[in-house]
Amino acid sequence: MLVEATRGDMVESFHRGAAVVVDTNGREIAAFGDIERLIYPRSAIKPLQAIVLVESGALEHFGLGATEIALACASHSGEAIHTEGVRRWLNHLNLDETVLECGTHYPTHRNTRISLTREGINATPAHNNCSGKHAGFITVACHHGNPVAGYIEREHPVQQRVLDVLERVTEETVTIAPAGLDGCGIPVVGMSLKGIARAFAALGGKRFSSARRSEAADRICQAMAKYPEIVGGTGRLCTAVPLATKRRVLVKVGAEGVYTGLAMGSNPIGFALKIDDGSRRAAEVALAWLIAKFCGLTTAELDQMQPWLQPEVRTVANRAAGIVRPSVDL
After folding, report:
1. Is the pLDDT of residue 27 over 90?
2. Neighbouring-strand partners of residue 271
């Protein structure tokens, strides 16, 4: 049991799940639940998928940089900073957003969504929270002379490169793991929380097997730390955590209750969690607890994390009714 929600005098709901924290040697610092069970990490591994883009040389070839790396790692809210960034990026390739195969949805950022609706403007593929990742895949395809059309298919050379990187950094045979389609249409494969956390520890410690991959890891971490507002958006945990921790702790959300993250510094760590019922509410509380417990936060940093650690349950009339908190089992 990782998270519980109270109402009045009793616990009303429980959220089961699993979580693990590891160091750069893959040694478990802490583990809760079944960390060997395969899960779909969804968008929580975008920083790992971005390795293919960064180490390929495509960014330099097309005159791109840290802003685009942050977009490639983002599950963004569809604000102007995100959509305009993706469109500028594609313009560097002499392309436009019609080549994006991620599909279209309205921005998750409320004010942007309302503004579009009031102005009678339809959402476009650039508003998709995964559009930056897809722009990255397209960039890799263009750099290697591969077709852009169909870049989301498992058989496409870009996705084969991504799967190869994931297999190497997680040290798991993801190419034969259970597989499906992510919400944005790319392949999703089963991985263990331990393997994912191991990869994020290596990412934060810049300790991959090759110098080129370690350099790519450093650039990815620096981009996410420099542009947290691109990685998430207004009011998002992926943006709040780096800002609260002087940009040394980075986190990434994935659908269905998944979070990953890393802490940089003299003793880098990686962590990953999954809430079994897919609750993001519970995942955010569990993540905040992991960060507070294992990332060496100062008192001031802990204060900034408090709203995420024990968010209030409120009535329709906005009266305090309870809290969501880490389970007493932890």
Report:
1. yes
2. 21, 261
User: How many domains is the chain built from?
Assistant: 1
d(CA 270, CA 280): 20
- Our CA dihedral for 305, 22, 223, 125, rounded to 10 degrees, sits at -80
Residue 18 CB coordination number (10 Å): 22
pLDDT tens-digit readout, 268-327: 999 999 999 999 999 999 999 999 999 999 999 999 999 999 999 999 999 999 999 999
If we measure between CA atoms, which residue out of 82, 13, 74, 91 comes closest to residue 275? 13
Structural domain including 321 reads 3-326
Tell me which residue has tokens 């509410």.
Answer: 281
pLDDT in tens, 43-60: 999 999 999 999 999 999
- Give 108-114's long-range contacts (Cβ < 8 A, gap of 24+): 108/77, 108/78, 108/233, 109/77, 109/78, 109/79, 109/233, 109/234, 112/77, 112/78, 112/79, 112/80, 113/78
Q: Where are the alpha helices (DSSP H) in 245-298?
A: 280-294
Helix (H) or strand (E) holding 62: helix 58-62
Q: What is the DSSP letter of 198?
A: H
User: pTM of this prediction?
Assistant: 0.96
CATH number of the domain where residue 139 is located: 3.40.710.10
Q: What is the pLDDT of residues 200-243, one digit of tens each?
A: 999 999 889 899 999 999 999 999 999 999 999 999 999 999 99
Look up residue 118 and give its DSSP letter. Answer: H
